[in-house]
Amino acid sequence: MVNSSHEAMHRIFQEYPGLFTGVSKVLGLPFVPPKRVTVLPTDLTEIQPVERRVDTLLRFDGEESFLLAVEAQSAKDPDKPASWAYYLSFLYTKYKIPPLLLVVCQDRTTAEWAARPMVLGPEQWPSLTLRPLVVGPHNMPLITDPDEARADLALAALSAITHAKAPAVGGILKTLSTALRDAPATVVVPIIEFIAQGLGSNRRAAELWRNLVAVDLSPYKSYIFEEFRDEGRAQRGAEDIVLVLEARGFDISDEIRERITGCDDPDVLRDWLTRAVTASSAEAIFTHGPDDEG
Predict the structure, then answer these.
(1) Which residues pair with 102 in a beta bridge?
(2) What is the distance between the alpha carbons of residues 130 and 140, in angstroms, rounded to a whole number?
(3) 248 lies in which domain range?
(4) Model pTM greater than 0.70?
(5) Looking at the structure, do residues 127 and 34 belong to the same domain, yes or no?
(6) What's the Cα-to-Cα distance from 139 to each of 161, 175, 262, rounded to whole Å?
(7) Which of 80, 115, 140 corresponds to the end of one domain?
(8) Considering only CA atoms, which of 6, 10, 31, 16 is closest in space to residue 189?
(9) 12 and 116: one domain?
(10) Are 247 and 127 in the same domain?
(11) What are 144-188's pLDDT values in tens digits?
(12) Higher pLDDT, 45 or 31
């Protein structure tokens, strides 16, 4: 299933195609910086029934030309290597230039699995070997120096995304919020959004990023800021309901508390708050009064 974290891991290369140059330097690979990078269509579907789409596809032209297919991988998938081999074969057939597969991961186990060469063909004479280039928390740097982050903001953002599940991600996020203060809005806003998406299910890191954005980068506007604002309103509304119920001496079970704090609908929260003032119990805020319809 495609999620926001998955999208951030590969779409950051679409927004900042030059990011691969920074990645290749980190990995010690001798790629020459391209003179031009083109974002290509990601649809690899044939005329016949099976639809196949690579996550992100870029064309690099310069002293050498090659295609970069970027795949975001969040877990082991035994069917994926065969799909990757198909992607590379199709791309070479279609564009007639060498394709390179870059797999971006957020945990070491998945990264090590993805990096293993996959051999196609009989043992006596292998016909094809798939060797993805893999980046993840095992080989991406922990960028905690603001000057280093400023030197390559996209690489610093990818560092935060690939280390999203690591305890050290907090230091990277603080470094990034500091480094982004002096950057133009056209650079800051996409990076803020990519990181917010890339942190995925790490709720603690996501909350830290919200706070850092609110404090360090408040002048910038994007849909992420609107999300932060709406989430903040919902959180305050839920806290008010709990406060009223506690002030009235009601026992609030974990189930009731979770239902209140898990609601993000302002109209529902407002209704519950009104009922909390006169309800006969904490549970009663969820039920209509005798004069209400439904």
Answers:
(1) 70, 133
(2) 22
(3) 223-286
(4) no
(5) yes
(6) 13, 19, 37
(7) 140
(8) 16
(9) yes
(10) no
(11) 999 999 999 999 999 999 999 998 899 999 999 999 988 888 888
(12) 31
Q: Which amino acid is at 48?
A: Q
Could you report the per-residue pLDDT of 198-225, keeping only the tens digit for each? Answer: 997 788 888 889 888 877 776 654 445 5
Element (H, E) at 69: strand 66-72
- Beta-carbon contacts of 23 under 8 Å, excluding residues fewer than 6 positions away, are 102, 135, 155, 158
Average pLDDT, rounded, for the chain: 85
Phi, then psi, of 69 in degrees rounded to 5: -100, 120
Query: Is the pLDDT assigned to residue 228 strictly greater than 70?
Result: no
> For 214-238, b where at least 16 C-beta lie within 10 A, e where not — what string?
eebbeebebebbeebeeeeebeebb
Judged by DSSP in three states, 43 sits in strand
Calpha distance 164→140 (Å, rounded): 12
- Report d(CA 180, CA 187) in Å as an integer: 8
Query: Based on the domain organization, do 133 and 24 belong to the same domain?
Result: yes
Tally of domains in the chain = 2
For residue 9, give both structure tokens. Answer: 């891991």
With cut-offs at 50, 70 and 90, classify the pLDDT of residue 230.
Answer: low
- Nearest partner of 136 among 62, 75, 80, 92, judged by Cα: 75
SS3 content of the chain, % helix, strand, coil (to 5): 50, 10, 35
Residues 252-277 have pLDDT tens digits of 898 898 898 888 787 788 788 878 87
Give the strand pairing for 36-40 and 56-61: antiparallel
